[in-house]
Design goal:
The protein is built from seven helices and five strands. By secondary structure, the protein is α/β, with parallel strands linked by helices. The protein has one domain: Rossmann fold, CATH 3.40.50. The longest helix has 22 residues. It binds NADP nicotinamide-adenine-dinucleotide phosphate (NAP). The site of NADP nicotinamide-adenine-dinucleotide phosphate has 25 residues, from α1, α4 and β4.
Length: 193
């Protein structure tokens, strides 16, 4: 049976992926910062060596963009060195590594949607640290998948719930008008809508 290790399994995306995989015939290994801190290379290697996952899905990250700006060292530690540690471990145990990245590796400002062939040009510390994480993953683990997702929403998306609530009450919705994205939602949510 395939063993899938989800790091950052307590976060929004990690919880959702774990819930979806739970219905599949796979063995799930779920960790978060309290069980395996991905910035600790020794712990990461030890956990991978003992459990020998076939796939590692990295949902761990420092995702608060403002916090990344005020604590850049921490952002690079979690978003870049963390994936590096997982990349090294994945190579050693011959696992495939799925790295959750972001459209923030692009600076924005273009008039057309980005593709895989566009050159990353992050402007925020968050985007820069995530791009550094991608590069480490590419460098250390040949069997990788990098997902540059845009805004992810789902069942427990506070902003979406807030908008739906205001709309259902016929109230005015205040939102940024200078940002464009391609939101990604779970299939279950689409069916419900
Ligand atoms: N949500 C989105 O719209 C979106 C869009 C594009 C890309 N992404 C990417 O998708 C991934 C998951 O996003 P998310 O929204 O699920 O983020 P999240 O809710 O902030 O979850 C991140 C998880 O990682 C954990 N974590 C933080 N530092 C860690 C460490 N050193 N070792 C192990 N675990 C650690 C966090 O624990 P604590 O909560 O205790 O810190 C949290 O459980 C991120 O890499 C993010 O860049 C998300």
């Amino acid at each position: 049976m395939q063993k899938i290790w989800i790091c950052g399994a307590g976060g929004r995306v990690g919880r959702k992926i774990a819930g979806l995989l739970d219905r599949k015939p796979v063995e799930l290994l779920l960790t978060d910062i309290d069980s395996v801190d991905i910035t600790n290379s020794k712990d990461v290697m030890e956990y991978a060596g003992i459990n020998r996952p076939h796939v590692i899905v990295n949902c761990a990250g420092l995702t608060d963009v403002g916090l990344c700006e005020s604590e850049p060292e921490r952002a690079f530690k979690v978003n870049a060195l963390g994936p590096r540690n997982l990349g090294v471990a994945a190579r050693v145990v011959k696992a495939r590594l799925v790295q959750l990245s972001t459209d923030d590796v692009f600076g924005g400002g273009g008039q057309t949607p980005y593709t895989e062939f566009d050159r990353p040009d992050p402007v925020t510390v968050y985007g820069k640290s995530k791009l550094a994480g991608e590069n480490f993953v590419r460098e250390f683990c040949s069997r990788h998948i990098i997902v540059r997702s845009s805004w992810i929403f789902g069942d427990k998306s506070p902003y979406l719930e807030h908008v739906l609530k205001l709309a259902s009450e016929g109230k005015r919705v205040e939102a940024a008008s200078d940002q464009t994205a391609s939101p990604t939602g779970p299939q279950t949510w689409r069916k419900k809508s």
